[in-house]
Amino acid sequence: MKLGAEQVLLVEDDLCEAKLFCRVIQNESDHRFVVQKAFNLREALEALKNPELSIVVTDLSLPDSQGVDTFKTIHQARPEIAVVILTGIRDEQFAIETVRCGAQDYLVKGRDNGTMIVRALRYAIERKRVDEEWRKLISMREQERRLEALGSIASGLAHEISTPLQFVGNNISFMRRAYSKFEELLEKVDALILCKNEGANVEELEKEIATLIHDEKYEYLRSQTEKVLEETTEGIKRVHEITKAMRVFSRGVNHSKIRYDINRAVRDALTVSRNEWKDWADIRMNLDDGIPAVECEPGEVSQAILNLLTNASHSIKQVETRKRENGGDPHKGMIEVSTKDLDGYVEIEVTDSGDGIPEDIKPRIFEPFFTTKDVDSGTGQGLPIVHNIVVKKHGGRIDYETEIGKGTKFKLVLPVDSREVIEEKEPDHEVAKKSDDLNGRIMHHVARR
After folding, report:
1. Of the four listed, 157, 239, 282, 374, which is most buried by Cβ atoms within 10 Å?
2. What is the pTM of this model?
3. pLDDT in tens, 18-31
4. Are residues 318 and 408 in the same domain?
5. Does residue 95 sit in the same domain as residue 163?
6. Contact by Cβ (8 Å): 337, 349
């Protein structure tokens, strides 16, 4: 194999067509391509285990697979590899559909020459590599956005952790003092037992022990010990809950989906955002314990819920701040979070008693960087991130209802089973003919010699 040669997997059940394709690209590419052949989908899937493959050229009509499903199965097995469709003239519409689903290009048997075929393969490989680099950059940016969102509540999280740690520390100091008193009493009791065994006079020791037992400090320490231990346990539990929730949010964006309990995602988001709402709103949870686990990216879904809770908290804070400034009765608003099974879907509902969304703003709420907050208070990324996570990444939908002065209700609806959401690419035959334009979607065609 020539140094630096690209490895091609050709999936074609017609032996003559396969030999013709191999001869064409070998003659025209100066052996820059090495072809591995598969004659059906089963063989193709086995061959796809080769990590050195650069591109797959496949017919859609195979003995064990037909149509667009052929491409989808190959793409699912190795989504990072470029795929070019090999098709006949009568099947061209199917080929166009696969391009919309993510194939790099398609080739029609019996058209154009070998030079154009080789160029099409080379461009497809390069475009796929660029696509993959772009996806990596997008993933990095998504992680940055997630960390930015967490950064906005970082001081609150620090407070949420430091407060229980502070009283845990104070309680440990209390227990040290208590232990020294209890130890003193135990030493007296040990001495009393020893004296009794030796037949000595124990009257004085008994008085000392009685004095210790009835001492106010001892009484206080004894009465508070159980309470202190309970508080310490609760404080450690609280810190554990926060760190456990943070681990979900701080995961890298790796696009791997697992079956996950949405109720846990809700609780994690409430835990992380607690400092945002605790002074301004009461939380009412109505979580359906019978909802099915959803195939999703846990960190992403938790992030979407967190963003809604943060927005709800800020909206209520604005309302309550105005009331207090105007001499109104200080009281908390309400955030209600519920989950529901919708037969194949799970609904997450977040309702707040905030200001509501003005009519002129509604068309722009999912627009990146649009915000009604002060420059130093928001980036306008909250709802766009929610939309990207729910709709684009998980194939779900977002509904909302709002009333000025009453509040807003957001509904996130996620499919229980994962959906691959693919941004369609519209084929442009006029652009495709411009084979020298690397920005065009090149669609060259296999020549029959």
Report:
1. 157
2. 0.54
3. 888 888 887 776 66
4. yes
5. no
6. yes
